Amino acid sequence: MCLAVPMKITNIDGFQCTCEAKGIEREVSLFMLQHETLEPGDHILVHVGYAIQKVSEQDAADSWALFDEVLAADI
User: Fold this and answer.
1) Whole-angstrom Cα distance, residue 67 to residue 59?
2) What is the 3-state secondary structure (H, E, C) of the chain?
3) Cα distance between residue 12 and residue 65, in whole Å
4) Which domains are delineated in the chain?
5) Contact call for residues 6 and 53 (beta carbons, < 8 A)
6) For residues 69 and 48, what is the distance between their CA atoms, to the nearest angstrom?
C-alpha cells in the first residue's frame, strides 16, 4: 500500500520545492508535475519525496483530519 501526504508549498526553485505539513518541512521534487502550474501556497500530495498531484486546500485539510482521527484511535 502506498501513502501520499498532503503538504503546502512554501518555496519553489526550479523543479524542487520546500513544503510544510504539521510543522515539518521537506524538500520535494516537482519533476512529475512539471506541466502543472504551481506556486507557494498550493497544496500537493507527496510520495517518497515526489509531488504526485496538486490538490485543493480543502482536500488537504480533509486528508489530515482523517489521518488525525486514525492516529487518535485507541486500537
Assistant:
1) 12
2) CCCCEEEEEEEEECCEEEEEECCEEEEEECHHHCCCCCCCCCEEEEECCEEEEEECHHHHHHHHHHHHHHHHCCC
3) 26
4) 5-72 (2.30.30.140)
5) no
6) 23
User: What does each of the 75 residues of the chain score in pLDDT, given as a tens digit?
Assistant: 688 999 999 999 999 999 999 999 999 999 999 999 999 999 999 999 999 999 999 999 999 999 999 889 876
Residue 22: alpha-carbon gap to chain centroid: 11
Question: CB pairs under 8 A, 24+ apart, for 36-40?
Answer: 38/9, 38/12, 39/9, 39/12, 40/9, 40/10, 40/11, 40/12
Cα angle for residues 60, 29, 26 (degrees, 5° grid)? 60
